[in-house]
Amino acid sequence: NKMRENKIINTIETERLYLRQWQASDFAPFAEMNANPKVMAYFPKLLTTSMSNTIAKKCQSLIDDNGWGFWAVSLKETDAFIGMVGLNNANADMPFSPAVEIAWRLDNDYWGLGYATEAARASLNFAFVELGIEEVVSFTAVINKRSQLVMERLGMTNTQENFYHPMINPNHRLAEHVLYKMTRQQWQDAVLT
Predict the structure, then answer these.
(1) pTM over 0.70
(2) Quick one: pLDDT at residue 7?
(3) DSSP assigned state of 99
(4) CB under 8 Å, gap of 24 or more: what pairs does 105-114 form?
Protein backbone atom coordinates (compact mmCIF):
# COMPACT_ATOMS: atom_id res chain seq x y z
CA ASN A 1 0.00 0.00 0.00
CA LYS A 2 1.50 3.27 -1.15
CA MET A 3 1.50 6.25 1.17
CA ARG A 4 0.51 9.48 -0.50
CA GLU A 5 0.61 12.66 1.56
CA ASN A 6 0.02 10.43 4.57
CA LYS A 7 -2.93 8.84 2.83
CA ILE A 8 -2.86 5.15 2.11
CA ILE A 9 -3.75 4.13 -1.42
CA ASN A 10 -4.89 0.57 -0.98
CA THR A 11 -3.87 -2.12 -3.44
CA ILE A 12 -5.60 -5.44 -3.03
CA GLU A 13 -3.97 -8.65 -4.11
CA THR A 14 -5.97 -11.81 -4.81
CA GLU A 15 -4.81 -15.17 -6.07
CA ARG A 16 -4.74 -13.99 -9.71
CA LEU A 17 -5.36 -10.25 -9.65
CA TYR A 18 -4.33 -6.83 -8.47
CA LEU A 19 -6.96 -4.22 -7.64
CA ARG A 20 -4.93 -1.04 -7.81
CA GLN A 21 -4.78 2.66 -8.52
CA TRP A 22 -5.32 3.63 -12.16
CA GLN A 23 -2.29 4.17 -14.39
CA ALA A 24 -2.04 6.16 -17.62
CA SER A 25 -1.71 2.89 -19.55
CA ASP A 26 -5.18 1.77 -18.34
CA PHE A 27 -7.04 4.57 -20.08
CA ALA A 28 -6.85 3.23 -23.66
CA PRO A 29 -7.98 -0.35 -22.90
CA PHE A 30 -10.71 1.05 -20.62
CA ALA A 31 -11.97 3.30 -23.45
CA GLU A 32 -11.93 0.33 -25.82
CA MET A 33 -14.01 -1.65 -23.32
CA ASN A 34 -16.50 1.20 -22.89
CA ALA A 35 -16.97 1.40 -26.67
CA ASN A 36 -17.53 -2.36 -26.97
CA PRO A 37 -21.22 -3.22 -27.53
CA LYS A 38 -20.77 -6.59 -25.82
CA VAL A 39 -19.34 -5.08 -22.61
CA MET A 40 -21.85 -2.23 -22.66
CA ALA A 41 -24.95 -4.31 -23.49
CA TYR A 42 -26.62 -3.34 -20.20
CA PHE A 43 -25.62 0.31 -20.17
CA PRO A 44 -27.70 2.99 -21.90
CA LYS A 45 -24.99 3.93 -24.40
CA LEU A 46 -21.46 3.32 -25.59
CA LEU A 47 -18.95 5.83 -24.25
CA THR A 48 -16.70 8.07 -26.28
CA THR A 49 -13.00 8.04 -25.40
CA SER A 50 -13.31 11.38 -23.63
CA MET A 51 -16.29 10.17 -21.54
CA SER A 52 -14.38 7.02 -20.65
CA ASN A 53 -11.26 9.00 -19.69
CA THR A 54 -13.38 11.26 -17.49
CA ILE A 55 -14.67 8.21 -15.59
CA ALA A 56 -11.16 6.76 -15.22
CA LYS A 57 -9.86 10.12 -13.91
CA LYS A 58 -12.78 10.34 -11.48
CA CYS A 59 -12.02 6.81 -10.22
CA GLN A 60 -8.37 7.79 -9.87
CA SER A 61 -9.10 10.93 -7.87
CA LEU A 62 -11.60 9.18 -5.57
CA ILE A 63 -8.97 6.53 -4.80
CA ASP A 64 -6.48 9.34 -4.17
CA ASP A 65 -8.91 10.99 -1.77
CA ASN A 66 -10.30 7.94 0.02
CA GLY A 67 -7.68 5.24 -0.47
CA TRP A 68 -10.31 3.00 -2.12
CA GLY A 69 -12.91 3.07 -4.89
CA PHE A 70 -13.47 1.50 -8.28
CA TRP A 71 -10.02 0.01 -8.71
CA ALA A 72 -8.31 -0.81 -11.99
CA VAL A 73 -7.91 -4.59 -12.15
CA SER A 74 -4.91 -6.27 -13.74
CA LEU A 75 -3.78 -9.84 -14.11
CA LYS A 76 -0.82 -10.67 -11.89
CA GLU A 77 0.73 -12.89 -14.50
CA THR A 78 0.80 -10.48 -17.45
CA ASP A 79 -0.06 -7.12 -15.87
CA ALA A 80 -2.85 -6.83 -18.48
CA PHE A 81 -5.63 -4.40 -17.55
CA ILE A 82 -8.92 -6.35 -17.54
CA GLY A 83 -11.44 -3.84 -16.18
CA MET A 84 -12.62 -2.15 -13.01
CA VAL A 85 -14.06 -3.56 -9.82
CA GLY A 86 -14.63 -2.01 -6.45
CA LEU A 87 -16.61 0.19 -4.13
CA ASN A 88 -18.22 3.57 -4.44
CA ASN A 89 -20.63 5.81 -2.58
CA ALA A 90 -23.86 5.32 -4.53
CA ASN A 91 -25.27 8.32 -6.36
CA ALA A 92 -27.36 10.50 -4.03
CA ASP A 93 -30.40 10.22 -6.35
CA MET A 94 -30.70 6.50 -5.76
CA PRO A 95 -33.71 5.45 -3.67
CA PHE A 96 -31.49 3.53 -1.21
CA SER A 97 -28.82 6.24 -0.74
CA PRO A 98 -26.71 6.85 1.20
CA ALA A 99 -25.10 3.48 0.54
CA VAL A 100 -21.82 1.94 -0.54
CA GLU A 101 -22.15 -0.02 -3.75
CA ILE A 102 -19.99 -2.72 -5.22
CA ALA A 103 -19.70 -2.96 -9.01
CA TRP A 104 -17.64 -4.51 -11.78
CA ARG A 105 -17.06 -4.08 -15.49
CA LEU A 106 -14.63 -6.39 -17.24
CA ASP A 107 -13.43 -6.68 -20.80
CA ASN A 108 -15.40 -9.53 -22.41
CA ASP A 109 -12.14 -11.35 -23.27
CA TYR A 110 -11.93 -12.07 -19.54
CA TRP A 111 -15.51 -13.16 -18.90
CA GLY A 112 -16.38 -16.60 -17.60
CA LEU A 113 -13.11 -17.09 -15.71
CA GLY A 114 -14.31 -16.05 -12.27
CA TYR A 115 -12.34 -12.80 -12.23
CA ALA A 116 -15.32 -10.56 -11.41
CA THR A 117 -16.26 -12.78 -8.46
CA GLU A 118 -12.67 -12.99 -7.24
CA ALA A 119 -12.15 -9.23 -7.37
CA ALA A 120 -15.59 -8.45 -5.94
CA ARG A 121 -15.08 -10.87 -3.06
CA ALA A 122 -11.82 -9.09 -2.18
CA SER A 123 -13.65 -5.74 -2.40
CA LEU A 124 -16.39 -6.95 -0.04
CA ASN A 125 -13.78 -8.18 2.40
CA PHE A 126 -12.12 -4.76 2.24
CA ALA A 127 -15.48 -3.01 2.81
CA PHE A 128 -16.45 -5.10 5.83
CA VAL A 129 -13.08 -5.78 7.43
CA GLU A 130 -10.94 -2.71 6.61
CA LEU A 131 -13.61 -0.03 6.35
CA GLY A 132 -16.05 -1.55 8.84
CA ILE A 133 -19.02 -0.77 6.59
CA GLU A 134 -22.30 -2.28 7.85
CA GLU A 135 -23.89 -3.02 4.48
CA VAL A 136 -22.93 -3.07 0.80
CA VAL A 137 -25.41 -2.90 -2.08
CA SER A 138 -25.21 -3.90 -5.72
CA PHE A 139 -27.66 -3.20 -8.49
CA THR A 140 -28.10 -3.82 -12.19
CA ALA A 141 -30.77 -3.86 -14.87
CA VAL A 142 -33.33 -6.64 -14.32
CA ILE A 143 -32.34 -8.13 -17.70
CA ASN A 144 -28.64 -8.33 -16.78
CA LYS A 145 -28.65 -11.91 -15.53
CA ARG A 146 -24.87 -12.31 -15.83
CA SER A 147 -24.22 -9.64 -13.20
CA GLN A 148 -26.95 -10.99 -10.92
CA LEU A 149 -25.21 -14.38 -11.00
CA VAL A 150 -22.05 -12.72 -9.68
CA MET A 151 -24.08 -11.09 -6.90
CA GLU A 152 -25.50 -14.49 -5.98
CA ARG A 153 -22.08 -16.15 -6.07
CA LEU A 154 -20.89 -13.50 -3.65
CA GLY A 155 -23.68 -14.46 -1.25
CA MET A 156 -25.56 -11.18 -1.69
CA THR A 157 -29.34 -11.24 -1.22
CA ASN A 158 -31.92 -10.00 -3.69
CA THR A 159 -33.93 -7.47 -1.62
CA GLN A 160 -36.91 -7.85 -4.01
CA GLU A 161 -36.99 -4.02 -3.92
CA ASN A 162 -36.75 -3.34 -7.64
CA PHE A 163 -36.47 0.31 -8.62
CA TYR A 164 -36.34 2.50 -11.69
CA HIS A 165 -32.92 4.02 -12.24
CA PRO A 166 -33.31 7.80 -11.84
CA MET A 167 -30.94 8.55 -14.74
CA ILE A 168 -32.70 6.29 -17.28
CA ASN A 169 -35.97 6.98 -19.07
CA PRO A 170 -38.62 4.83 -17.28
CA ASN A 171 -39.72 3.31 -20.62
CA HIS A 172 -36.18 2.20 -21.49
CA ARG A 173 -35.52 -1.57 -21.41
CA LEU A 174 -32.75 -0.96 -18.84
CA ALA A 175 -34.77 1.26 -16.50
CA GLU A 176 -35.92 -1.36 -14.02
CA HIS A 177 -33.15 -2.49 -11.68
CA VAL A 178 -32.72 -5.21 -9.07
CA LEU A 179 -31.16 -4.34 -5.72
CA TYR A 180 -28.93 -6.83 -3.90
CA LYS A 181 -27.49 -6.32 -0.42
CA MET A 182 -25.08 -7.90 1.98
CA THR A 183 -24.54 -7.00 5.62
CA ARG A 184 -21.31 -7.33 7.51
CA GLN A 185 -22.98 -10.00 9.65
CA GLN A 186 -23.89 -12.04 6.55
CA TRP A 187 -20.31 -11.71 5.34
CA GLN A 188 -18.88 -12.86 8.66
CA ASP A 189 -21.32 -15.79 8.78
CA ALA A 190 -20.35 -16.79 5.24
CA VAL A 191 -16.63 -16.54 5.99
CA LEU A 192 -16.98 -18.68 9.10
CA THR A 193 -19.01 -21.46 7.46
Answers:
(1) yes
(2) 67
(3) -
(4) 105/33, 105/39, 106/33, 106/39, 106/73, 106/82, 107/29, 107/32, 107/33, 107/36, 107/39, 107/81, 107/82, 107/83, 108/36, 108/38, 108/39, 109/82, 110/82, 110/83, 111/146
